[in-house]
Amino acid sequence: MNSNKIQLYNTLSRQKEEFVPINSSEVLMYTCGPTVYNYAHIGNYRAYIFADTLKKFLEYEGFNIKHVMNITDIDDKTIRDSQKENKSLKEFTEFYTEEFMKDIKSLNISNPTKFTKATDYVDDMVLLIKKLMEKGIAYKSSDGSIYFDIKKFKNYGKLSRLVLDDQKETTSLTPQKYSRIKSDEYDKENLQDFALWKAYDEKDGNVFWKNELGKGRPGWHIECSAMSIKNLGEQIDIHTGGVDNIFPHHENEIAQSEGVTEKQFVKYWMHNEWVLVDQKKMAKSFNNFFTLRDIIKSGINPVAYRFWLLMANYRTRVNFVWEALEGAEIALKRLYGLYAELGEAVGNVNEEYKDRFKKYLEDDLDTPRALTVLWDLIKDEKISPADKKATVLDFDKVLGLGFDILQKDIIPKEIIKIAEERKLARKNKDFKKSDELRAKINSLGYEVKDSENSYKINKI
After folding, report:
1. Chain Cα centroid distance, residue 279
2. Which residue among 88, 112, 185, 277 is least packed, with the fewest CB closer than 10 Å?
């Protein structure tokens, strides 16, 4: 295992901290996964690419990782949209779950140790809610719903740095005197008691459970607490997600989990920043989002999107424009081409370059500078092609850019050069030259398939 010090930025302390896992034999990691009510947009995928890169890096450093990612298949949105499509909740959510699985595969995101579906853990959620009620931290309202009393949790707001008014006057405030909020997602202004269990509403249709809490369904926040505790235990090392999850979701996870266990729930909270469009957060609610289907339709390899994100620090906001993604794909293709030129032999990993690569990643996963090491390595004439190849494959254990796949099916640089020339001819509407270049590619044993803005080369 690595003896160097790894520094990770902890949202809880708002500073970089040395990474020391709770148990040296295994790192416990939880990632807030998708709510499967639609195709995830590419802004969502930044969270999963970040978590995947972090996990790959820690494995690269010699740690064993137990990683859980949830699938939210029961919440306000899944119920609402499944009804719009006249489908059962299960049929509706399973479709989008399968699409999510296809997407992460195309982004070279490794599966976690375990995916957990919220609907499989309702009994565990009920158990946690009962414990919170027994401790007097949760209460049942007049409509039958059960709420978490945030005034009873003295450190509420410690992750998001939000301060409750009159927090010291907990004893003089009854639940009835404090406002409540039933919706799953809400704004920072809404420092209110949140729903753990939602009493049955006709709007829920046939989506409900009957148990000692009454007829109803769980709130969104309790789902992650239950799935994390059930699969990873009461205390975990790392919890990841987008910055939009800090409040209310992750704040509420802390309150629920620590309210039950009276132990620190998560040691390192790590959050990635937003992907913007026109300097605004990419979101379905703003209708300013793109999905991976849009990227694929435009002829761009989804891995180019992963590469583009790795060129920025995960805690930096990035503004998505198609030209930037196209530029990233050109750079990635160039890397692939340079790699292809190295030949078939695989030598030994260059330790000097490996040390530089690790040094940058150990500084809060600094992928932009780690990528500069990759470029420097490829250009270094003092390193043999075989050793370069071995070192690139070693780096790619973290970067996930697919050089291991290229190793199996490398497109020669000559073919790529002709294909790029042909792309320019098509752009200039010189279709005669385009056809001639296509024939030349075919004569060399390859075929080119066009899409709107790009192409794909296959061996015949």
Report:
1. 21
2. 88
Assess contact for 128 and 195: CB atoms under 8 A.
Answer: no
Average model confidence (pLDDT) across the chain? 92
Give residue 452's pLDDT band: very low, low, confident or very high (50, 70, 90). Answer: low
User: For the domain bounded by 7-272, which CATH number is listed?
Assistant: 3.40.50.620
DSSP state of 246: I
Q: Which of 150, 71, 160, 163 is nearest to 112 (CA)?
A: 71
The model's pLDDT over 374-411, given as tens digits with 9 standing for 90+, comes to: 999 999 999 999 999 999 999 999 999 999 876 555 67
The ranges assigned to domains in the chain are 7-272, 302-408, 413-459
Amino acid residing at 17: E
CA 429 to chain centre: 40
CATH number attached to the domain at 302-408: 1.20.120
| Alpha-carbon separation of residue 192 from 146, 180, 195 (angstroms) | 13, 5, 10
SS3 assignment, position 307: helix
Query: Between the CA of residue 164 and those of 137, 188, 189, 255, 452, what are the distances in Å?
Result: 16, 12, 11, 14, 53
